[in-house]
Design a protein that fits this description.
cytoplasm, globular, Udp-n-acetylmuramoylalanyl-d-glutamate--2,6- Diaminopimelate Ligase, Chain: A, domain 1, 9-stranded mixed sheet, disordered N terminus, alpha/beta, cell division, UDP-N-acetylmuramoylalanyl-D-glutamyl-2,6-diaminopimelate-D-alanyl-D-alanine ligase activity
C-alpha cells in the first residue's frame, strides 16, 4: 500500500506501484493537474479524472480499465479489480464519499460567494435566470442541467474554475438530511428557497417534512451568519427564515427590499418592478404568472450583487426556457405550452389555474400522472381532477399514473403513445394546449411525429 507520507511526485510517476491509498490533499493535487472530473464512461474525454461510482444496479469499478483505456488520467476506485493493475488506479474506501470530500476541499480553496438554491418548484428556472443576470457582470459558474443530487452537487462544485467570481448551485432533495449534507461541502454563503410544496411526499412524509428538509439550507445560513433571499409573500418562508441575520426580501406585497407585479400575462409573462430597482418592464419569454417569483428572485439577487438594472433586464429578456420547461411551441395552427420536465400537486395546480386565466381560445389540457407522492398519491390526483372541473375546457386528457384510479369524466390514456394518437385524432385547429406531467411519464413524447 502506498503510504500517505510518500512524496507527491510519486503519484505522478509512470513507474509508481498500483495506487491503493491517497489523502484528500494528495488527490486534490491530481485534480489540479487534471481538473475535469467524470463519472460516466460514455462522456469521458482524454485527461478526465474518473470516479468509479456504484449503486444498486451498477458498479463502475468494473469500468475503470475501460476508462483508463479511453484516456482517463486516473481512475478512483473502491474495489480491487481482479486481474487488473495499473499505476493510474487510486484506491479509496468509498468513491462517493471521496468525491464529496474532494468537492469540499476545492470549495475551501475558493474565496467567492456561493449561492445555493432549493425548493419544490421553480428552482432550475430560478437558477438559470440568476445565472444569466450575474453572468453579465461576473464570471459565474453554475449547475449544468439538473445535476442537483448527491452526485451532481459535488461534480458541480468541482467544475467551478479557480478564476470564478460567483457560483450558483442548485440543490434537489427528496428526504430529510439531504440539503444539510450538501451544505457540508458546498458551504454556501447565500441561499434561496423558491417555495415548499407537495413534492417528493414519499420521501419527506408530509408537507411539514418538505419544509424541514428544504429548511436545512436556512439552518446552515443561520448557523454561519450568512445571507438568505426570502420570497416575502410566503408566510412560511418568513417563519422558516427567522433568526437568519441577513435577509434580502422580494415579493409583491410591498415593503420588501424589492417589489414587483405581473404587468401582463398572455402569451408571455411581463413583469414590472415597482420598488427596489429602476426597471419599469421586463418582457420575458416565460409562460405563466407562476414564474413571477422566479423573475423577482433573479432581479433581487442581481440588485444585491450590484448588477446594473439594464443588464438585469437584458439578461432576463434574453433567457429562453428549454428542456420542456414552460416552452411555447407552434404545431400547425395550435399553440403548445410544454411543461413536461416535472410535476407535483403544487406545480400542477399553479399551471392549471394560470392556464385557466389565460386569454386564449380553445384551451386543451393534457396532464400526465405525478410521481413520488406515496400513500397520498390517489388523493392528490383526485384533488387535481376536482380543480380541473372548476374551469371550462375544449378538451381534457389525463395520461397514466394514478389518474387511472380517480373518478373523472375526461379521456384517460394509459401512456404517451396512446396520448399521441389521441391528440392526432382530435385534429385541433387554433387551440392552445398545455402539456404537463412528471418526468417519469415523459409527456414531451406526445409531440413526437
Amino acid at each position: 500500500m502506498l503510504a500517505a507520507r510518500r512524496s507527491r511526485a510519486a503519484f505522478f510517476s509512470p513507474h509508481a506501484l498500483y495506487l491503493r491509498a491517497m489523502t484528500i490533499p494528495e488527490l486534490y493535487a491530481l485534480y489540479q493537474a487534471h481538473p475535469s472530473v467524470q463519472t460516466d464512461t460514455r462522456r469521458l474525454v482524454a485527461g478526465d479524472l474518473f470516479f468509479a461510482l456504484k449503486g444498486p444496479n451498477f458498479n463502475a469499478n468494473l469500468l475503470a480499465p475501460k476508462a483508463l483505456e479511453d484516456g482517463a488520467s486516473y481512475a478512483v476506485v473502491d474495489e480491487t479489480i481482479p486481474g487488473f493493475e495499473d499505476p493510474r488506479l487510486i484506491r479509496v474506501a468509498d468513491v462517493l464519499d471521496t468525491l464529496q470530500q474532494l468537492a469540499k476541499h476545492h470549495r475551501e480553496h475558493l474565496r467567492i460567494p456561493v449561492l445555493a438554491i432549493t425548493g419544490s418548484n421553480g428552482k432550475t428556472t430560478t437558477k438559470e435566470l440568476i445565472h444569466a443576470v450575474l453572468s453579465t457582470t461576473y464570471k459565474t459558474s453554475t449547475t449544468q442541467g439538473n445535476l442537483n443530487n448527491h452526485i451532481g452537487v459535488p461534480l458541480t462544485m468541482l467544475r467551478i474554475p479557480p478564476d470564478a467570481e460567483l457560483a450558483v448551485i442548485e440543490m434537489g432533495a427528496n428526504h430529510i438530511g439531504e440539503i444539510a449534507g450538501y451544505c457540508t461541502y458546498a458551504l454556501p454563503t447565500h441561499g434561496l428557497i423558491t417555495n415548499t410544496g407537495k413534492a417528493h411526499l414519499e420521501g419527506f412524509g408530509s408537507l411539514e417534512g418538505v419544509r424541514r428538509g428544504k429548511g436545512e439550507l436556512y439552518d446552515h445560513l443561520r448557523a454561519n451568519d450568512r445571507t438568505a433571499f426570502i420570497m416575502w409573500d410566503y408566510d412560511y418562508l418568513r417563519e422558516m427564515s427567522n433568526g437568519i441575520a441577513h435577509r434580502f426580501t422580494y415579493g409583491t406585497i410591498g415593503g420588501e427590499d424589492l417589489t414587483g407585479t405581473v404587468a401582463r400575462n398572455r402569451d408571455f409573462l411581463e413583469v414590472s418592478i415597482t420598488n427596489g430597482a429602476g426597471i419599469p418592464l421586463i418582457k420575458t419569454k416565460l409562460v405563466g404568472d407562476y414564474n413571477l417569483p422566479n423573475v423577482l428572485a433573479a432581479v433581487a439577487v442581481g440588485k444585491y450583487f450590484e448588477v446594473h438594472d439594464e443588464h438585469i433586464t437584458a439578461a432576463i429578456e434574453a433567457y429562453t426556457p428549454t428542456n420542456s420547461r414552460s416552452q411555447m411551441l407552434q404545431r400547425g395552427t395550435n399553440h403548445i405550452i410544454l411543461d413536461a420536465y416535472n410535476a407535483n400537486p403544487s406545480s400542477m395546480a399553479a399551471a392549471i389555474d394560470n392556464f385557466a386565466r389565460m386569454d386564449a381560445p380553445d384551451k386543451v389540457l393534457m396532464l400526465g400522472g405525478m410521481k413520488e407522492l406515496g400513500p397520498d398519491s390517489v388523493t392528490e390526483h383526485q384533488h387535481l381532477v376536482d380543480l380541473i372541473g372548476r374551469h371550462p375546457w375544449k378538451a381534457v386528457a389525463l395520461v397514466g399514473g394514478d389518474f387511472a384510479h380517480v373518478n373523472h369524466p375526461y379521456a384517460f390514456l394509459g401512456d404517451t403513445n396512446e396520448a399521441r394518437t389521441w391528440l392526432a385524432q382530435q385534429a385541433f385547429n387554433g387551440a392552445t394546449i398545455l402539456i404537463k406531467g412528471s418526468r417519469g411519464i415523459a409527456m414531451e413524447n406526445v409531440l413526437e411525429s
